[in-house]
Specification:
single chain; alpha+beta; 4-stranded mixed sheet; 19 strands; elongated; Kinesin-like protein; coiled coil; cytoskeleton; motor protein
């Protein structure tokens, strides 16, 4: 038994040790499992974290998928629409190709037709070019012919004018020129408001050509005026002072014939006198009073034994140059009677007469024993707007200038004789209406004398043109003083200066009528010159 018990004890002890080893192995295994479990828990946590992230990414992915799906749907719709458009474009292209082919065929046909027309046109252009060359050659010939004809015309015109002037000189007529001044700024400033608003032209006087003046004047309630006036020369507003001088120059030359031109070494003596006719009295503007101060001295006109009109004791001053002459005249112009009116700030109240006398002695047996007298007459001014007292005086709207070289019998041949040439410049005061000028008192009296003297001048011209037996020279001191000029054998040139403006139309017609009457005057033919009585040595 004990042996059996020993075996079982060893068995159980062995078994216990075996079980203990198993338990220990199990415990080790449990530890391993716990370690593995902990590791698994960690992995699980990691996996859970990764799962959360994956879920969020999956959500975003789903959203992206949804967006992608929407884009795909839009893309499919756009592709479908694009396909339809492509189909339409293909159809249009096909139609365009077809129409282009048709148009190309039409263009080719038209090109052929145009080519034929171009060939025809080129051939026609060549023919026209040849014709143009022929016409140009013909035009050149015509232009040359026109130039030659124009030159001949101008030459013949000049000859005609010279012959006409010679005829006028032989007949003793008064030559009349007319100058139309340009419109000035103050003409518009003082224009009648009714005429400013009217569609009618503000100018009534026009230079038709170099010999004709046309006046067109339409006044409400008055007959329409459409009248022409003919003179020896008409100057338009654009013509300069030089043009006027060139026309007057031949008359100046006639003044000096036989004096300076034939013997330049014998310079003539030049003397100047200046008088004014104021209130029908004659005043010597060169005379000096007892204090040697220049002042106007009253003079009278007397008739000499030879029938000539002279002013006894008239003062003459010698001049030796143009500057001296201009200075002398300018100083005496300041002494002239003037008065401001409503229409002119510096209105002349007298008639001014400047006389330049040239005297020289010709050589023995000289054929040039002669005299020529010249007078410059200025016809009445028309009203012009008042100017500032400090400004220069503007020329009046209407003014007439006359020029008269006269002649006298020749002296005996072979004696030393004195030869005279006389130039007279006459500036007439302007006629005026007292109601327009607004003058009163002494100025109104001046207006009365001015208008009466101008009326007397018109009466003298009328009597001369009608060849009356009696010419009323003595009705005015002005006409009495100018009797030798108006009724004698001197050359006389009248220059009318008129305004083109509508507001001066009445004065323009008055001046043109004056010039027409002057042009009708026929006097004795003007001789070449006269010899003054011999002066003893």
């Amino acid at each position: 038994m004990p042996a059996r018990g020993g075996r079982w004890a060893g068995f159980w002890e062995q078994r216990a040790r075996q079980l203990q080893r198993q338990v220990q192995a199990k415990e080790e295994r449990i530890v391993e499992l716990e370690t593995e479990n902990a590791i698994l828990h960690l992995k699980l946590a990691e996996y859970q974290e990764m799962t959360g992230k994956s879920s969020h990414a999956a959500t975003r992915f789903c959203l992206l998928c949804d967006e992608q799906e929407g884009l795909q749907r839009g893309t499919r719709s756009s592709l479908a629409q694009l396909c339809r458009v492509i189909q339409k474009v293909k159809q249009d292209r096909k139609e365009l190709r077809s129409s282009s082919l048709d148009l190309l065929r039409d263009c080719q046909g038209q090109q052929q037709d145009c080519g034929s027309e171009i060939v025809t046109a080129v051939q026609g252009a060549q023919r026209h070019h040849e014709a143009v060359l022929a016409w140009q050659s013909k035009a050149g010939c015509l232009e040359q012919s026109l130039r030659e004809t124009t030159e001949r015309y101008q030459l013949e015109k000049q000859k005609r004018k010279q012959l006409h002037n010679r005829l006028v000189e032989l007949k003793g007529n008064i030559r009349v020129h007319c100058r139309i001044r340009p419109a000035l700024p103050f003409d518009k400033e003082s224009e009648d408001p009714l005429s400013q608003n009217s569609s009618v032209s503000a100018e009534v006087a026009h230079a038709v050509d170099d010999e004709t003046v046309l006046v067109r004047w339409d006044r409400p309630g008055h007959p329409w005026i459409n009248k022409t006036y003919n003179f020896e020369r008409v100057y338009g507003p654009a013509e300069s002072q030089r043009v006027v001088f060139e026309e007057v120059c031949p008359l100046l030359t006639s003044l000096l014939d036989g004096l300076i031109s034939e013997n330049p070494s014998r310079s003539p003596k030049v003397a100047v006198s200046v008088v004014e006719v104021y209130n029908n009295d004659i005043f010597d503007l060169l005379a000096k009073d007892s204090c040697a101060v220049t002042s106007g001295v009253k003079r009278e006109v007397l008739t000499t034994k030879a029938g000539k009109k002279e002013i006894p004791s008239l003062t003459y001053e010698s001049v030796h140059s143009t500057e001296e002459f201009l200075t002398l005249v300018d100083g005496r112009l300041r002494l002239r009677a003037k008065h401001a009116t409503l229409v002119h700030a510096d209105s002349s109240r007298s008639h001014l007469i400047i006389t330049v006398t040239l005297t020289t002695a010709p050589s023995w047996d000289s054929p040039a024993n002669r005299q020529s007298d010249v007078s410059l007459l200025k016809e009445p001014d028309c009203p012009s707007p008042r100017q500032p007292a400090t400004g220069r005086r503007h020329s009046a709207a209407h003014r007439t200038s006359s020029w008269s070289p006269g002649a006298a019998p020749e002296g005996p041949t072979g004696h030393m004789e004195q030869v005279h040439a006389k130039l007279q410049l006459v500036d007439l005061a302007g006629s005026e209406c007292a109601g327009v000028s607004g003058v009163t008192g002494a100025a109104l009296r001046e207006t009365s004398f001015i208008n009466r003297s101008l009326a007397a001048l018109a009466d003298v011209l009328g009597a001369l043109s009608e060849r009356r037996g009696h010419v009323p020279y003595r009705n005015s001191k002005l006409t009495h003083l100018l009797q030798d000029v108006l009724g004698g054998d001197a050359k006389l040139l009248v220059i009318l200066c008129v305004s083109p403006c509508r507001k001066h139309a009445a004065e323009t017609l008055q001046s043109l009528g004056f010039g027409t009457r002057a042009r009708q005057v026929q006097r004795g033919p003007a001789r070449a010159g006269r010899v003054a009585p011999r002066t003893p040595r």
